[in-house]
Amino acid sequence: MAVRNNRLTAEEYEQHFSDIHPPFETKDAAMVDANRCLFCYDAPCTKSCPTGINVPKFIKQITTDNLRGSAYTIFSSNIMGGGCAKVCPVEKLCEGACVYNLMEEEAIPIARLQRYATEKAIEEKWQLFERKASIGKKVAVIGAGPAGLSCAHALSREGVDVTVFEKEAKGGGLMTYGIAAYKVTPQFCCDEVDFITSLGGIEIRYGKELGKDITLDALQQQYDAVYLAFGVGLARQLYIPGEQLDGVVDAISFIYDIRNSGYPTVPVGDQVAVIGMGMTAIDAATQARRLGAKEVTLVYRRTQQEMPCTETEMNIALLDGCKIVWLAAPTEIRGENGKVTQLVCHMVKLEDDANGRRQPVITEEKIILPVDMVIKAAGQMPYEQLVHDYQLHHNNGKISVTNGISNITGVFAGGDCVNGGKEVVDAVQAGKDGAKAILQYLLDGAQAGNNF
Amino acid sequence: MADISANFLGIRSPNPYWLASAPPTDKKINVLRAFEAGWGGVVWKTLGSQVKNVSSRYSSVDYNGSRVMGFNNIELISDRPLDINLKEITECVRLFPDRAMVVSLMADNNRESWHELIKKVEDTGAHGLELNFGCPHGMTERGMGAAVGQDPEIAGRVVEWVMEVANIPVITKLTPNVHSVVPTGRASVLAGSHALSLINTIQSVTGVNLDTFVPNPNVGGQSTFGGYCGPAVKPIALKMLTTISQDPVTARVPISGIGGISTWKDAAEFMLLGATTVQVCTAAMRYGFRIIEDLCDGLNNWMDEKGFLTINDFIGRSVPTLTSWEELDINYHIVANINQEKCIHCGLCYISCEDGSHQAINLSYGSPYNTYSIKEEECVGCNLCKLVCPVDNCITMVEQRKGEEYVNWKEFQKRGMPLNDH
């Protein structure tokens, strides 16, 4: 048993990490599904999209050969509509609300149609937006993730000059560093960022981290407003014995390494346990398998009913050959010579608490999984210290805002650093809301009159 | 099992489905395949003066992903030598004596030409003649086809020429490219035509290519008006058929119905409005002769279900129910009802009523599903919501008469009954 990298051939890596989303092979194929759309009024799919993409409209536009119009419809509500079409848990958003579900019919493949319209726009670098004349205002955005880029794009369209400070070497945030590579390929992430910044008026300064390379005070002095969109980042600890052993990693850094360093360089064990059943846990488990791990076991202390990931996500893991152990709470990681050898879990019963919620209760029964690698995916924590240091009002590290406005004049915030970690599509909407608030502030309370 | 065989002026066929005069009936190889597949009869593609066809010939109208809702052609009558056609017709009649063989004719515009052509065709053993007074393109410029059918006097004269020599039943095919098909229909019947068939194709431009700016079909950078047919023309054909079925002169003769018939249901509708046989072309061109199976089977099952033993039991049955607007009962009133259990909350009924009708649907916002209900006092019973609803039987129209007695518009005016006040 060993944790090692470079387990596969170049072809295998390429195959394992290629785009999981099958595109429509032909226009005809897209048309068949686009023409099934009923063109609902006040459509449930649109109402279930956090960015409110006018889904029936963009699908109708596909059917009328107005692909440019279709792409505009999507991007004008969601500038990351390309990436969201790949990473959104659509089964609980737009597609989950499709009225066909109520007819016991297959929902319209909205995400796939959205990819059809947006990929073309990104590939062919369509200039769909035009900047308004400069209004002579400068805004600093911290973080080139979905919230930051969405805010930057919305502001730049209105004639604001935006500088984005990004601690990493690439933009895209979680899209680029925190999601399985087979969902959004590294190339796509780059193209998407380029597509957004091609509007003009947005400068991204890479390798600039708030609190290290730049300070909030300085930015406040140099810019008319600051938008904080630095996300969350710290992996939650398990607080069980053995967490310091060699072979114990957190899912965030594991995925970060896969996205950042190239697949062959990332070491993976023969027998891997992944703790958690959220989206990140799935992404870690599937990618561990795809890197060549022989056995990957997801360990979750509740049941399928409570799991945070969607069924579609779980199925990806199952199809990749991952196993799932339900109702098992890790209680100890054991090792030999400083290296992980076993994960000890106590089995759990779910019992109703005083509020009628099912709570895990640990039993005496335990299982021991022989492992050489443990990936912890127990959630991420906000940058509480940073937020505290800057005297931002917050709730356990999550910045408190009202309509994107923080307690500090001229400082706005949105995305994961406010909500604690939600979907990309939520962050994009937060960026739009933030831009709206900033613009109103820049125009000194004048009605912005915009519809981002 | 019902008997679906047809007897049209003594021309018998095992079913009422004939292939219309068109490319599928222009040579032996097609016609034999059609008979083998089970078609009741054919109207052989029009024989007449010598012509030459161009390329391309067809174009179509697609709608929401459905191909060939409407079909257009600029093909002329048969461009094969007459002798070959006559020889092949003879062979087909010999090989399938139980099928109807009607031959479509369009001779040059003089008595001798018609007489000569009819004699030759009768020698083949064909069972009937169909006079093509309807072709809307190519032939009209030479004073033939629709140029004849559009002028009752000319049409009547040509029919007279034909009747002078014809020994087998004569069907006159009417063009729809007129204000009313009745005058030419009457003239033809009065001149002795044994039967009528309708409709021929409707003059059309199916569309313009948005890259080349040339309308369809493109013939070397140009186009020309074509004849429109296929499912899109069925409602127009049914209307014209009804006027023929209702006119006291034309109603005397049997009718062969044509115009967008694709399914047994279409056929049944044509027959309910007076057609004894029906002719099919576009559907067979699109899907092939195999469609005859369901055309027969579906009609048979429907007849069994309705208790009809032969097609004569229902031919023309719906004709009396089509009346003039003035005869309609103003006291008859229906209102829509939405079955909330079936509703999928698509909102299509709401927006169509709101923007296209009488704002008679309530919208109660929900997340993500709105609830829609009918404002009965506003509903005029127009059917629009029911028509656009994607769920079968979700919206039904419920009768709520305004008064007990039948009151038509004339009576309504006479009594000075109240008009709308909003």
UniProtKB/TrEMBL annotation, chain A:
GO terms for molecular function: iron-sulfur cluster binding; oxidoreductase activity. InterPro entries: 4Fe4S_Fe-S-bd, DPD_II, FAD/NAD-bd_sf, FAD/NAD-binding_dom, Helical_ferredxn. Residues 28-61 form the 4Fe-4S ferredoxin-type domain. It comes from the Bacteria. This is NAD(P)-dependent oxidoreductase. The lineage of its organism: Bacteria, Pseudomonadati, Bacteroidota, Chitinophagia, Chitinophagales.
Automatic annotation (TrEMBL), chain B:
Residues 334-363, 370-400 form the 4Fe-4S ferredoxin-type domain. InterPro entries: 4Fe4S_Fe-S-bd, 4Fe4S_Fe_S_CS, Aldolase_TIM, Dihydroorotate_DH_cat. GO terms for molecular function: dihydropyrimidine dehydrogenase (NAD+) activity; iron-sulfur cluster binding; metal ion binding. It holds the Pfam family Fer4_21. Keywords: Iron, Iron-sulfur, Metal-binding, Oxidoreductase. GO terms for cellular component: cytoplasm. CDD domains: DHPD_FMN. It catalyses: 5,6-dihydrothymine + NAD(+) = thymine + NADH + H(+); 5,6-dihydrouracil + NAD(+) = uracil + NADH + H(+). PANTHER family: DIHYDROPYRIMIDINE DEHYDROGENASE [NADP(+)] (PTHR43073:SF2). Heterotetramer of 2 PreA and 2 PreT subunits. Involved in pyrimidine base degradation. Catalyzes physiologically the reduction of uracil to 5,6-dihydrouracil (DHU) by using NADH as a specific cosubstrate. It also catalyzes the reverse reaction and the reduction of thymine to 5,6-dihydrothymine (DHT). Belongs to the dihydropyrimidine dehydrogenase family. This is dihydrouracil dehydrogenase (NAD(+)). The gene is preA.
